[in-house]
Structures are given as structure tokens and as C-alpha cells.
């Protein structure tokens, strides 16, 4: 038997020379212009490393030496676990990992497409859906509940996440002062997060070139508790970043390096995942759009992080379309395929529509199928002598067929993709089936998943304990 020889498709957009140029320009921007740092504690952290000469008020200039040290100090991989403590996956190594989310303010009913404010029960439903989809690796904060007190929304959102999935969590906490309480609650419900790191907090600076107080405060808390974190920049070309893709990439890359430096100064060796959410901006509609440059910059940023030896978090292409429609489908395919063929480690925000304002369950279900299909593409195929089967071709000869081949019988089940949503129908079969509509089949599949979700056995216990924790915490805060 011959050794396996795999044809592995790959997508690359930057040359080594271009990578070096982008890095050099990013470092020059940081050393000459610097970043604005809004937190006194973060400014003091930079001052201790750089000296007061590098700090002008709240503007901090980062030296090339500090940036290089931070790159070397950060781990190249991060192991994530399930809530039960089992190894889930390792970031920094392929394949690309996908998750649903993120912080939507509205919910799109999968049966009627009606848009309603996002409520706590929508969080429960959405998290259970993510727990049930086999190609979804993690669950991000799906939405912001509008039916609970604003000073408790982050707590209830995280509680529903922890109780209704065992998959790793990416948490986005909008109120910085609630962030320690959220982590306290997770420690209380699930055990010490240091010993079971199934949670990654997500923070983002303010583009251009501002490390805002809320972001740095959450970073300090997360790092001090030994947690990994995601640091991601959101840019709109021509608004918060230069209108050219190259300019946007350099500016956003500089922001990531500044955040990386701060994380390592807080605690050397802190695991950090870096990435960008690059958007174009439609000047006529005055709205951000996910376009071709978004795809290219997503892949390019992943290559920059691979060059640094750091895990990467990218965009999920989420937000395009008005639900699970042709607009959303095209973006999903472009994003998910380019991500798995590139060096993107993580796409945590699947399932949103209307510019990431509304969570769409049937969009998430369709994305799950797209992910399964693009992973088959990324898997490539075996091109060893055994799989070529030249002897079989000679035996069949001109005009023969391979239907009766032993190898066809052995492999035909895995040779094609079997969809849980869309049957394979030719024209006659489609007519005989009553001319089904693809969207109706998707809605039917989504409805089945929502009616029969995969729910953790301990969800009731966690919800009860979490409710008690929140009530006690809120009571203590008001007394204090």
C-alpha cells in the first residue's frame, strides 16, 4: 500500500515581501503616532515598560522592540475545553472553528421572518440551537436581552449560555462593571475557570487607534484571572480606517499589536487571539457592507497572525442579507470557503442578518450546512497510487462503467455530501415531490431543531443556581 498523498487546496493573498511591508508600516505607526489609552491603569502599565518619555498624556508610542517582545511572549496555540472539562479544540491549528452570535438586539422568527426585540427566551432558544448544530464548534453571546434590567442583561445572557450548551463560550459583556460579576457567576456555576478554560472574553478597541477604558479594564480582569482573550478590531473603510484595503490592513494590524503588547505587559504569556472585522461603507446608504475587500482582508489578517505565530479570529460574514436569503447565502459561501482555505482559526459570529442586528435561526442552520460543505473542500482528496486505481481503469477499458466496481460499492456513501435539509432531486423528482421550495425545506429543518434541541442534562440546576446568584449579587450591589 502506498503512502497517502493529499491534494490540499489553500488560499493565500500576501507575499512574504508584502507581509514584511505591512508589519513595518504598522510598527512605524505605533512608534511615531502611537495609540490613545483611556484607562489610567493601562497608561501606568505602559509607563512601567516604556518610561514616561513614551507617554504623552494618554497617547502612548510603542517601540519596535516592545512589539517584537510581545509577539514572542504570546502563546502560538490555545486549548479550549467544553463546560464539562473535556478538550474541545486547539486554536492556532486548522481546521477553522465556527460559532453562532453575536450581541444582536433583535430576533428574526424562523417561521414568519417577523423581527422582534431580543428577549431572554430567544437567548435560550438560540444557544440550544448552537448546541444542536454539529458543525458549530462554539457559542458566542447571541444577543442582548431587552426584557431584563439593563444592569443585569449581561448576567442573564451569560447564564443562559452556560446552562444551555456545553460547548466553549465566547462572551461579550457590554457593561464593563458587570464583567467581574459575570466571571464570578461562571466560577460559581461551573468551577474555577482557571482549571477549566471553556470561556474566552471578547474585547475590541475603538478604531482608529484607541484602547478605550472599557476594553482595557476587561482585559485587566480577564488576564488577572488567567483567562485567554480575543482582541478584535472593527473597521469601516473610508470612515474609521483608510478607504484603501492596504491602508485599512496596516491600521487595524497596528491596533492588534498595541492590544497584544498591553496583554503581555499585564501578564507575560497571556493567551490572546487577534483579528479584525473589516467592512466597507456604502456612502449612499450610510451603512457598513461586507464586500470583496472584507473577504480579502480577513484572509490577509489571518496570514499576518500566522506570520507572527498567533491564533487568529476572523469575520464570519455575518450580517449580510435579510435572513436566510440569497444575499446571506452568497456572503456565507464567500466567507466560510475563503476562511477554511486560508489560515483563519476562528469565525465566531454566524447567524445574524440586517447588519448583525437580528439573529436568524434559519440563517444559522443554513450556515451549518455551508460549513460542512466547505470543510469537505478544505479536506482535499487523496492522490496516492492506490486511490488513482489505474489498474481498475485498464480493466474497465473504453466504454465500460464503474457502477459494478468493488471500490464504488465500498466508497459511494462517502463520495457525495448528504444534506439534512435538501434532498437530491432531478427535475422529475422535484415535480413528483410537489415542487418543494428550498427555503421551506430550510424552515422545516430549523423548526425540527428548535422543537427537539440538544439540551444539557444539568441546565435546570444551573439556571436555578444562576438565578439565585444574580439576585444575591444585585441585592448586595444595591445595599452597597
Unreliable residue stretches: none
Helix content: 40-55%
CATH level 4 superfamily: Trimethylamine methyltransferase-like
End-to-end separation in angstroms reads 73 Å
Please report the number of helical segments.
17
The total beta strand count reads 20
Q: Whole-number radius of gyration?
A: 24 Å
The order of strands across the largest sheet is 16-15-14-12-11-10-7-17
- Average pLDDT taken over every residue: 94
Total count of domains: 1
- Named CATH topology: TIM Barrel
Could you give a short account of the major beta sheet?
8 strands, mixed
Describe the structure.
The protein has helices spanning 16-32, 40-50, 64-73, 120-132, 153-164, 179-190, 213-224, 245-266, 292-308, 326-341, 361-379, 385-388, 390-396, 406-415, 427-432, 438-451, 459-479; strands spanning 6-7, 35-37, 55-56, 59-60, 78-81, 87-91, 97-100, 106-108, 115-117, 138-140, 169-171, 199-203, 210-211, 229-236, 272-282, 287-289, 346-350, 352-353, 358-359, 381-382. With 480 residues, the chain is of the alpha/beta class. The model has no long low-confidence stretch (mean pLDDT 94). The protein has a single domain (1-480), classed as TIM Barrel (Alpha-Beta Barrel), CATH 3.20.20.480. The strands form 5 sheets. Strands 16-15-14-12-11-10-7-17 form an 8-stranded mixed sheet.
Summarize the structure.
The protein contains 17 helices and 20 strands. With 480 residues, the protein is an alpha/beta fold.
Question: Topology, pairings included?
Answer:
Elements lengths: L5 E2 L8 H17 L2 E3 L2 H11 L4 E2 L2 E2 L3 H10 L4 E4 L5 E5 L5 E4 L5 E3 L6 E3 L2 H13 L5 E3 L12 H12 L4 E3 L7 H12 L8 E5 L6 E2 L1 H12 L4 E8 L8 H22 L5 E11 L4 E3 L2 H17 L17 H16 L4 E5 L1 E2 L4 E2 L1 H19 L1 E2 L2 H4 L1 H7 L9 H10 L11 H6 L5 H14 L7 H21 L1
Parallel strand pairs: 2-13, 7-10, 7-17, 8-19, 10-11, 11-12, 12-14, 14-15
Antiparallel strand pairs: 1-20, 2-4, 3-4, 5-6, 8-9, 15-16, 18-19
Helix pairs in contact: 1-8, 3-8, 4-5, 5-6, 5-17, 6-17, 8-9, 9-10, 10-11, 11-16
Amino acid at each position: 500500500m502506498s503512502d497517502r498523498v493529499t491534494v490540499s487546496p489553500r488560499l493565500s493573498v500576501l507575499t512574504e515581501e508584502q507581509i514584511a511591508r505591512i508589519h513595518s508600516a504598522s510598527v512605524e505607526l505605533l512608534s511615531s503616532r502611537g495609540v490613545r489609552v483611556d484607562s489610567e491603569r493601562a497608561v501606568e502599565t505602559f509607563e512601567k515598560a516604556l518610561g514616561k518619555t513614551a507617554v504623552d498624556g494618554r497617547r502612548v508610542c510603542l517601540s519596535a522592540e516592545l512589539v517584537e517582545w510581545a509577539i514572542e511572549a504570546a502563546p502560538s496555540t490555545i486549548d479550549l475545553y467544553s463546560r464539562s472539562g473535556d478538550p474541545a479544540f486547539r486554536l492556532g491549528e486548522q481546521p477553522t472553528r465556527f460559532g453562532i452570535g453575536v450581541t444582536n438586539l433583535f430576533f428574526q422568527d424562523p417561521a414568519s421572518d417577523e423581527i422582534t426585540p431580543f428577549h431572554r427566551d430567544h437567548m435560550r432558544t438560540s444557544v440550544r440551537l448552537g448546541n444542536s448544530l454539529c458543525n458549530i464548534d462554539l457559542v458566542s453571546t447571541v444577543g442582548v436581552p431587552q426584557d431584563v434590567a439593563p444592569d443585569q442583561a449581561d448576567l442573564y445572557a451569560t447564564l443562559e449560555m452556560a446552562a444551555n450548551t456545553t460547548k466553549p463560550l465566547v462572551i461579550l459583556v457590554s457593561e464593563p462593571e458587570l464583567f467581574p460579576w459575570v466571571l464570578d457567576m461562571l466560577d460559581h456555576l461551573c468551577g474555577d475557570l482557571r482549571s477549566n478554560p471553556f470561556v474566552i472574553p471578547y474585547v475590541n478597541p475603538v478604531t482608529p487607534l484607541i484602547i478605550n477604558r472599557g476594553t482595557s479594564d476587561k482585559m485587566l480582569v480577564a488576564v488577572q484571572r488567567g483567562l485567554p482573550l480575543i482582541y478584535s478590531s472593527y473597521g469601516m473603510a473610508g470612515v474609521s480606517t483608510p478607504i484603501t484595503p492596504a491602508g485599512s490592513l496596516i491600521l487595524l494590524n497596528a491596533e492588534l499589536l498595541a492590544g497584544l503588547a498591553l496583554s503581555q505587559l499585564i501578564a507575560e504569556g497571556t493567551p490572546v487571539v487577534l483579528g479584525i472585522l473589516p467592512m466597507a461603507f456604502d456612502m449612499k446608504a450610510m451603512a457598513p457592507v461586507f464586500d470583496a475587500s472584507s473577504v480579502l482582508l480577513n484572509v490577509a489578517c489571518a496570514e499576518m497572525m500566522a506570520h507572527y505565530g498567533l491564533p487568529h479570529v476572523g469575520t464570519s460574514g455575518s450580517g449580510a442579507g435579510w435572513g436566510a436569503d440569497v444575499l446571506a447565502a452568497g456572503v456565507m459561501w464567500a466567507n466560510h470557503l475563503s476562511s477554511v482555505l486560508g489560515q483563519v482559526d476562528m469565525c465566531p459570529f454566524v447567524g445574524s442578518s440586517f447588519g448583525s442586528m437580528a439573529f436568524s435561526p434559519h440563517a444559522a442552520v443554513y450556515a451549518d450546512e455551508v460549513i460542512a460543505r466547505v470543510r469537505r473542500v478544505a479536506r482535499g482528496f487523496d492522490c496516492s497510487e492506490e486511490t488513482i486505481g489505474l489498474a481498475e481503469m485498464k480493466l474497465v477499458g473504453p466504454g465500460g462503467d464503474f457502477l459494478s466496481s468493488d471500490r464504488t460499492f465500498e466508497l459511494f456513501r462517502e463520495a457525495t455530501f448528504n444534506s439534512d435539509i435538501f434532498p437530491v432531486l432531478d427535475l422529475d423528482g422535484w415535480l413528483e415531490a410537489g415542487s418543494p421550495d428550498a427555503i421551506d425545506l430550510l424552515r422545516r429543518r430549523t423548526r425540527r431543531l428548535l422543537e427537539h434541541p440538544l439540551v444539557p442534562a444539568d441546565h435546570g440546576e444551573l439556571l436555578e443556581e444562576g438565578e439565585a446568584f444574580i439576585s444575591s449579587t444585585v441585592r448586595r450591589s444595591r445595599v452597597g
